[in-house]
Amino acid sequence: QGSELSGWAMGRWTYEGIDLNHNFADLNTALWDAEDNDLVPHEFPNHYIPIPEYYTFANATVAPETRAVIDWMQRYPFVLSANLHGGELVVTYPFDMTRTYWKAQELTPTADDGVFRWLATVYATSNLAMASEERRLCHYDDFTRFGNIINGANWHTVPGSMNDFSYLHTNCFEITVELSCDKFPHASELPAEWENNRESLLLYMEQVHRGIKGVVRDSDTEQGIANAIISVDGINHDVRT
């Protein structure tokens, strides 16, 4: 298509007409409704939220690609992830969906907002294009004012995003990296794009070593305990072994 000449929607939908970026189950609404009714976490979980029944029906508008990714996420206990997009230079972090359903933009942080802002900052500050003092704006938004990171919902609401689904249905913390102003860089530009992102990708992966880690064991048998729930005071989002 050439540099920045294609429309924002080019390549966005699958052959079936599904936007994969909005195709995951909306678990946010169920959580927030339960929070508003003081049901969390004693009657409604604050993590590992189950997929709603309607989403599993054969006639549900769920792409086979989305179902495959969900199966993959359920088989492997990922803890850190990033999905890569094009068309901007910014790193976004959950929540991607606004809590006030009728708002197009609204700051909507998770219970782990500090961790997510750290993860986004690690990538943004080591990305050569984002960190360059000579960088120009891609379009209209000046993300340099915020250190090239932003809460996803505070940019534009995305119901059914993979980031929100990962956080609410699994142990995985996931961010979105908008890699480049160009959605379709020329082949000759790809080596430079790789150099822009190589170190930030490596540093991001290294963040799996942050925080507390270990094995929860049975005190009598010393065997590891699966699905032990770990709660941290002051953070209304548990994780499981």
Automatic annotation (TrEMBL):
Span of domain Peptidase M14: 1-208
Active-site residues, as the UniProt record annotates them: E178 (proton donor/acceptor)
The protein's required cofactors: Zn(2+)
SUPFAM superfamilies the record matches: Zn-dependent exopeptidases
Cross-referenced InterPro entries: CARBOXYPEPT_ZN_2, Peptidase_M14, Peptidase_M14_domain
One Pfam family from the record: Peptidase_M14
SMART domains recorded: Zn_pept
Keyword flag Metal-binding: yes
Gene Ontology cellular-component annotations: extracellular space
Highest taxon, organism lineage: Eukaryota
A single GO BP: proteolysis
Keywords from the UniProt entry: Carboxypeptidase, Hydrolase, Metal-binding, Metalloprotease, Protease, Zinc
Single GO MF annotation: zinc ion binding
Name used for this protein in its record: CPXM1 carboxypeptidase
Organism annotation: Herpetotheres cachinnans
